[in-house]
Design goal:
The complex is a heterodimer. By secondary structure, chain A is mainly beta. Helix content of chain A is 9%, strand content 23%. Chain A is built from 1 helix and 3 strands, in the order ββαβ. In chain A, a hairpin with a 5-residue loop joins strand 1 and strand 2. The radius of gyration of chain A is 12 Å and the shape is globular. By secondary structure, chain B is an alpha+beta fold. Helix content of chain B is 41%, strand content 16%. Chain B contains 6 helices and 4 strands; from the N terminus they run H-E-H-E-H-H-H-E-E-H. In chain B, the strands form 2 sheets. In chain B, strands 1-2 form a two-stranded parallel sheet. A two-stranded antiparallel ribbon of chain B has the order 3-4. The longest helix of chain B is centred in the last third of the chain and has 15 residues. Classes of the chains: A mainly beta, B alpha+beta. At the A-B interface, helix 1 and strand 3 of A face strand 1, helix 2, strand 2, helix 3 and helix 5 of B.
């Protein structure tokens, strides 16, 4: 995961890069899914 | 689940749900909730921090009806709530990134139960999709 901790809006800036595993363990990177708009939903709960 | 339903059939966008869960927790979530939305695990909360999502006050978590509702749902399913993860006070949010990787919209939750409306999420995605054409 790229980028430092921020407290200000990121609108208009490049999104922080990431590479995180999905439920099957396959890594998903931001660069892999660009080309279409991306919605990121950051949930708090895993229950 | 509501987001998943609202975006069902959309092939012009990519929807990803980031959770602080482990792979096993993601698999359980997917099965129990019947989720088709792609789930990404961020147990270290690193992407949350990279986005700068704020940390809630103690009262924003433990006095929030949403927190206790979540616990009650767990108990109703016969499960005991687990120990809080390392950064239980970190809040979430939603963001739309355009096709080139630029953030076009973000919503930063102000407390545990604060979420944007589904209509607003869809509207922001439609705007980003229209720009991409």
């Amino acid at each position: 995961v790229g980028g430092l901790a921020r407290v200000t809006s990121l609108v208009g800036e490049a999104a922080p890069s990431f590479r995180l595993p999905d439920a099957d363990g396959h890594p998903v990177a931001l660069a892999d899914v660009l080309g279409r708009p991306v919605l990121l939903v950051f949930t708090r709960h895993v229950h | 689940v509501e987001v998943q339903q609202a975006l069902s059939g959309r092939t012009d966008i990519v929807a990803l749900a980031v959770t602080p869960g482990s792979q096993a927790e993601l698999q359980r979530l997917r099965t129990e909730r019947g989720l088709t939305l792609r789930l990404l695990g961020d147990p270290s909360w690193s992407l949350y921090r990279a986005w700068g999502f704020p940390r809630a006050r103690w009262s924003g978590i433990w006095l929030s009806p949403a927190t206790w509702l979540a616990y009650l749902r767990l108990l109703a399913r016969g499960r005991r709530p687990g120990r809080p993860t390392e950064d239980v006070y970190r809040l979430g949010g939603d963001a739309v990134i355009d096709a080139s990787g630029i953030v076009t919209w973000e919503y930063r939750s102000r407390h545990a139960a604060d979420r944007p409306s589904i209509d607003e999420i869809v509207r922001q995605l439609d705007t980003a999709a229209a720009r991409s054409r």
